[in-house]
Automatic annotation (TrEMBL):
Natural source organism: Streptomyces spongiicola
Subcellular location: Cell membrane
Top-level division of the source organism's lineage: Bacteria
Record-level Gene Ontology MF annotations: transmembrane transporter activity
Alphabetized UniProt keyword annotations: Cell membrane, Membrane, Sugar transport, Transmembrane, Transmembrane helix, Transport
InterPro entries reported in the protein's UniProt record: MFS_dom, MFS_sugar_transport-like, MFS_trans_sf, Myo-inositol_Transporter, Sugar/inositol_transpt, Sugar_transporter_CS, XylE-like
Protein name as annotated: MFS transporter
Transmembrane keyword on record: yes
Recorded family membership: Belongs to the major facilitator superfamily. Sugar transporter (TC 2.A.1.1) family.
Length: 471
């Protein structure tokens, strides 16, 4: 099967869209949902110890509150695709923006622990929606020659949101003289950490008003004139718009509104491609990356790092993730999705194994916990190989690999599986850590190793293919 001219790698001027800057703005605006995804997921990191002390709960109960957001994530991811097919991609972004803002305010002003958990679930629904709609929308509006890099904006936004949340947390902690429960303007520091998210949530809503609807959705509801205008803006005037509209219409002629039944096939319940998407999502979480995002401050404090330094360690980890993501964004269209995923699996297997080795040197003397200098340095950087590969490539693959007739629904199922796996990792980490921190990282290493044969045997290469070719 051959690709369309627009699907060739951008090696010369002819492959460069006339309105690439406009496309970049559109993709970056949609990826603001990814920013909030990262921000909301990681901002709780700075409040973990304060919430535990404020409500006087055990680590196990606290883990359930933190993981409550993931229940909402699974709900949001499972429903976003169907909602997007009914009301449009942009409307889903706007719904998510409202939920993000409501969750930020509610989480900052809880009157009980269950109330905080409820607002965490609301924020989780928004994260789940954003995790589905951003890659789907970006894939649908991007010229195929640049689609990999534009789709990777999602992961770049996620790690930027994570980093900024840690910087905001550190700034607030500094203002509060290093006390997570210190008072600032009538509220405790941790409440400010959670509440400030309302600012990017509002920005996300504003940006969603400035970008166009997906041309595929517009064609699906009979708005061909608007679809032609969007295609002209994102693919350039030199593109045969009539031909592109016909291509999309022809592809959609064999489609109908996706339903759960469309994902079924054979004796294994789902179609093979859906299982591959689920596998990618689950492996992405079972390597334990979100342990770093949710618990890094508490993790560093558990091995003897003081609270102020633990926040800086978390921020430093986030910066490394951003650099790794930028490198992966450059590589994803150059070397392909499958090779990059394999490089990531090999790298994570080694780095997580090193983390397990480093944490095995954790010692406690007279109530003081510490790691030796070498092992502490290794532990700080060991988990960051994720950003160089799987952090980017999984979202690119999920946005591209499914046939058009099931793309939104299949992406929703895959993202839901990702959130369920995320929940499993999040609620089990405190218990695993108390049992044996090094042992927890051995488990994550095993999953990284198992991802290698999974990629080799089942994951398809989508580089250079138009979305209409996926089948």
């Amino acid at each position: 099967m051959t690709s369309t001219p627009q699907a060739q790698a951008p090696e010369g001027r002819k492959a460069r869209p006339e309105h690439l800057s406009h496309v970049v703005f559109i993709a970056a605006s949609a990826a603001m949902g990814g920013f909030l995804f990262g921000y909301d997921s990681a901002v709780i990191n700075g409040a973990v110890v304060a919430i535990r002390d404020r409500f006087e709960v055990t680590s196990e109960v606290l883990a359930q509150v933190i993981a409550a957001a993931l229940i909402g994530c699974a709900i949001g991811a499972a429903t976003a695709g169907r909602i997007a097919d009914r009301v449009g991609r942009i409307r889903v972004m706007q719904i998510a923006a409202v939920l993000f803002a409501a969750s930020a305010i509610g989480s900052a002003l809880p009157f009980a622990l269950w109330d905080l958990a409820l607002w965490r679930i609301v924020g989780g629904v928004a994260i789940g929606m954003a995790s589905v709609i951003a890659p789907a929308y970006i894939a649908e509006v991007s010229p195929s020659a640049y689609r990999g890099r534009l789709a990777s904006f999602q992961q770049a936004a996620i790690v930027t949101g994570i980093a900024l949340s840690q910087l905001v947390n550190w700034t607030i902690l500094t203002i509060a003289d290093g006390d997570q429960r210190g008072r600032i303007g009538g509220l405790e520091a941790w409440q400010w950490m959670l509440g400030i998210e309302v600012v990017p949530a509002v920005l996300y809503g504003v940006l969603s008003l400035l970008i166009p609807e997906s041309p595929r959705y517009l064609i699906s509801v009979g708005r061909r004139t608007e679809a032609r205008k969007v295609l002209r803006d994102v693919e350039g005037r030199s593109v045969d718009l009539d031909k592109r509209v016909v291509e999309i219409e022809e592809n959609m002629r064999h489609e109908r509104k996706p339903s759960f039944r469309d994902l079924l096939g054979g004796r294994f319940l789902f179609l093979p491609i859906v299982w591959i998407g689920i596998g990618l999502s689950v492996f992405q979480q079972l390597v334990g990356i979100n342990v770093i995002f949710y618990y890094s401050s508490a993790l560093w404090q558990s091995v003897g790092v003081n609270p102020a330094s633990s926040f800086l360690y978390s921020f430093e980890t986030s910066i490394v993730n951003i650099v790794g993501t930028l490198i992966a964004m450059v590589l994803v269209d150059r070397i392909g999705r499958k090779p990059l995923a394999l490089i990531g699996s090999g790298g994570m297997s080694v780095s997580l194994g090193l983390a397990a080795w480093a944490f095995s040197y954790k010692t406690e003397v007279g109530g003081e916990v510490s790691l030796p200098g070498l092992q502490g340095t290794v532990a700080l950087f060991a988990a960051n190989f994720f950003a160089l590969s799987w952090g980017v490539v999984v979202w690119v693959l999920l946005g591209e690999m499914f046939p058009g007739r099931i793309r939104a629904a299949a992406l929703g199922i895959a993202a839901s599986a990702q959130w369920v796996a995320n929940w499993l990792i999040t609620v089990t980490f405190p218990t695993l850590s108390d049992w044996n921190l090094s042992g927890a990282y051995v488990i994550y290493t095993v999953f990284a190793v198992l991802s290698i044969p999974f990629i080799l045997k089942w994951v398809p290469e989508t580089k250079g293919k138009a979305l209409e070719e996926m089948g």
